[in-house]
Write a structure and sequence with these properties.
Helices cover 32% and strands 23% of the residues. It contains 13 helices and 21 strands. The strands form six sheets. Strands 12-11-8-13-16-17-19-20 form an eight-stranded mixed sheet, sandwiched between helices. β1 (8-13), α1 (19-31) and β2 (35-40) form a beta-alpha-beta unit. The structure holds cytidine-5'-monophosphate.
Length: 401
Amino acid sequence: MAELAGKHIVLGLTGGIACYKVAELTRLLTKAGATVQVVMTEAATQFITPVTLQALSGRPVYTSQWDARVPNNMPHIDLSREADAIVIAPASTDFIAKLAHGFADDLLSTLCIARDCPLLVVPAMNRQMWQNPATQRNANQLRADGVRVLGPDAGPQACGEVGDGRMLEPAAVYSAIVAFFAPKHLDGKRVVITAGPTFEPIDPVRGITNLSSGKMGFALARAAANSGADVTLIAGPTALDTPWGVWRQDVQTAQQMHDAALASASGADLFIAVAAVADWRVAHVSERKIKKTADGTPPAFEFVENPDILAAVARLPDGPYCVGFAAESDDLDANAAAKRVRKNVPLLIGNVGPATFGRDENEVAIYDEHGITRLPRADKTTLATLLIEHIAKRLPGSLFS
Ligand code: C5P
């Protein structure tokens, strides 16, 4: 999955202990296909060596305005002209102040001033330094100048204090960079997605669930958020991290998922039902743990049917454009087409082949009023991007074709 293939990123490090996180960020960016040109301030080289970042980025690191390797001796122009974006991580108090006031007294600050590409800044500092009115004023000035300020995070700090100022984790910075570059097919749209399994309790310690990992639904939530949508992800029990920029609501049972979906679907533009919802629940949940009987008779359960969440959202008078999933063991095309009509949804995505629960890859076909579109087998992140692109074209009033 080369989500940043073809992108050229200048990654600027300034002085701060969070420099150690940028080794991992460099790795994530290069693994995703980006060309990463590292530039370090003098102070940054006190925290991590240029050798480490050269090894991870596969390119020589620049630290000086007077670098004889650049034939015209104008690294500030050459490096910034190649870039699709400049990312400053970590961004120190001092460097944020320099950017806000337009100082250019070293290579990194000079190439920021000379840039003709977007600038993303990832602050990292002690909480008092971040809260200082001067820093806040400078960060606000950057925002007003169109610079993206990512974070900071809150929590324990290297200095031993706790508060705002921690640098975002490398995975979060990576996700924000991917989101920044993604085409905005769903800009301003409100999207609701169900994902993962449900868990239907039998007693306080047991229940009925299924093997859904939530990976496909979470990947779609991430792709929708990257496309500019305001995303609500209603998730059954799963250990997955919440994607960058997504609002998540955790639920356990099908009934809770139904209630949460109906509460957020009114007025939404798009609803995607990816969750593997239990078809039945136990009618009477025991308040105490059910004990084995002396004669070995197993317990008997009465089941009731759960509500069909997708069908309920599709019935809403002011409802969103609805997308369902179908996992069929045979005759996918006929069964998926029939399910699309039965559930009264305009678009259905069918899993081709055996169930892919928990896997990173999948193969799907799309069923809508234009017929069948088969997508090549791919990892779920790639598929999610393709699916969101396809769905965005089908939304009422879409400007994409
Ligand atoms: O009817 P079937 O379970 O095959 O339909 C699958 C689709 O319906 C999926 O999109 C799933 O998320 C959705 N569904 C639902 N509520 C249910 C059962 C399925 O939203 N109770």
